[in-house]
Write a structure and sequence with these properties.
Elements lengths: L2 H4 L19 H15 L4 E6 L5 H10 L5 E6 L6 H11 L9 H17 L3 E6 L7 H11 L10 E6 L2 H6 L5 H5 L1 E7 L4 H15 L12 H8 L3 H17 L7 H11 L4 H4 L8 H12 L4 E7 L2 E8 L2 E6 L6 E2 L10 E5 L4 E5 L6 E3 L2 E7 L5 E4 L2 E7 L16 E3 L4
Parallel strand pairs: 1-4, 1-5, 2-3, 3-4, 8-9
Antiparallel strand pairs: 6-7, 6-15, 8-10, 10-11, 11-13, 12-13, 12-14, 13-16, 14-15
Helix pairs in contact: 4-5, 4-6, 10-11, 11-12
Length: 413
């Protein structure tokens, strides 16, 4: 590899989580402090979320490495499990062999273990990574575990880490009791341009750069533009750029090496690939859409408890509706998922489609997956109503009074 050429001791941009290379941005330092608080406070548990590649797993590994010996840890990374298999996995982490046990035996063994550890002055910590994949029944088991108590304290400290969809689950109506037990929540977003530069330099220094500037200063803005400040993407791009410089037998990574890496990875700028970690300028976007797309096909009115809050014209294109600011239209409600639904508008029609949201979208009291909107349709999303008004002089689709063939209805679970 290129270590000898760059005079480094280790590969600086490996994708595997390594606590030694953790860069503590302000956000990562705060998230780590929240994790550490679980050791001292037992009244609830901590939820840490972040996009794919935001550094959650590395943060967890760093936190675990710094724990005192009096803390007993169960770390669960495989989360697509049944309730019994999940509880068995927890016991395996504590040194048991529970696979022949029935659920009642598993629970009794776990309860006795927690009491014994508390009596011995040891703390018990459960960390669940990729917790967004836990199904509803397993999340209910987590809630029950969080309720096991001694005379004064909770017997188990719990940290849930996962992608933003975890928050959507916790905000669902059926998990009100679970959400009330969450003491702290924190969401890791991408690094800023300045933090991206510091992140790259930090990893190079840990790997043995000893103050040498291996990356040309002018290429850092390009690194940010193509990675969006996502640590995993930064690692991929920087490692590929170093390989390009290695091919030139150069110990400096220049713009031409970065360009070669971008070409090899077939990347476009991050903002063009996704809107998930950036809040767009909605007013500017709406203005550009209006100028480019011609007259409006229709418009929607967003109402809450009978009062219209938002009115938005629909022109050919895609409108994503959700709870967070990175959507085209944001609705601040715990009943609305991070990315809840989208409206796809063409010259001839407007289609609303659920984006696998937790609480779904409803038309005339029926939960639907997708539906071609007709003039006057009222779609319910959480506690809000979306009324569609067709602006075209000639209706291309007659209004119907029942959910018709252009609608995909979900079976009630």
């Amino acid at each position: 590899m290129y270590l000898e050429l760059f005079r480094l001791r280790e590969l600086p941009f490996r994708l595997s989580p390594d606590p030694q290379f953790l860069y503590l941005s302000k956000q990562h330092a705060r998230a780590k402090a929240y994790m550490e608080s679980t050791i001292w406070f037992t009244d609830g548990f901590v939820v840490i979320t972040g996009e794919i590649g935001a550094g959650k797993t590395t943060l967890i590994e760093t936190f675990l490495r710094e724990l005192q010996p009096d803390t007993v840890v169960a770390q669960i990374n495989q989360t697509q499990l049944s309730p019994t298999a999940f509880l068995q996995s927890v016991l395996v982490q504590f040194g048991f062999s529970p696979f022949s046990m029935k659920k009642a035996e598993v629970l009794a063994t776990l309860n006795n273990f927690l009491i014994e550890q508390h009596a011995a002055g040891r703390r018990v910590l459960l960390i669940v990574d990729e917790a967004q994949n836990l199904n509803n029944k397993v999340l209910e088991e987590v809630r029950m575990l969080s309720g096991i108590e001694t005379t004064k304290d909770k017997a188990m400290r719990i940290i849930l880490a996962g992608q933003p969809e975890l928050n959507d689950k916790l905000n669902a109506r059926e998990f009100v009791q679970l959400a009330q037990r969450v003491r702290l929540r924190f969401h890791l977003t991408a690094l800023t341009p300045e933090e991206t530069t510091a992140y790259v330099d930090h990893r190079l220094e840990v790997a043995g750069a000893e103050g040498r500037r291996i990356f040309a200063e002018e290429i850092y803005p390009t690194i940010f533009r193509y990675t969006g400040g996502v640590p995993r993407l930064i690692n991929t791009l920087c490692d590929t750029a170093m390989m390009a410089a290695f091919a030139r037998e150069s110990d400096r990574v220049l713009q031409e090496d970065l360009d070669a890496a971008i070409h090899e990875l077939q990347w476009v700028e991050y903002a063009s690939r996704t809107n998930r970690m950036h809040a767009p300028n909605l007013a500017e976007a709406a203005s550009l859409d209006s100028a480019a797309a011609g007259p409006a096909v229709g418009r929607i009115l967003i109402a809450h408890r009978g009062a219209t809050m938002i009115e938005r014209e629909l022109r050919p294109g895609r409108l994503v509706i959700g709870r967070t600011p990175d959507n085209d239209l944001a609705i601040d409600s715990k009943f609305v998922s991070r990315h809840h639904c989208q409206i796809l508008t063409s010259a001839d029609s407007c289609l609303i489609e659920d984006l696998n949201s937790t609480n779904g979208i409803y038309l005339r009291s029926k939960r639907i997956r997708r539906h071609n909107l007709n003039d006057g349709d009222v779609v319910v999303i959480g506690e809000h109503e979306i009324t569609y008004i067709d602006e075209r002089s000639t209706r291309t689709r007659p209004r119907t009074d029942v959910v018709g063939a252009d609608t995909v209805v979900l079976d009630k679970a």
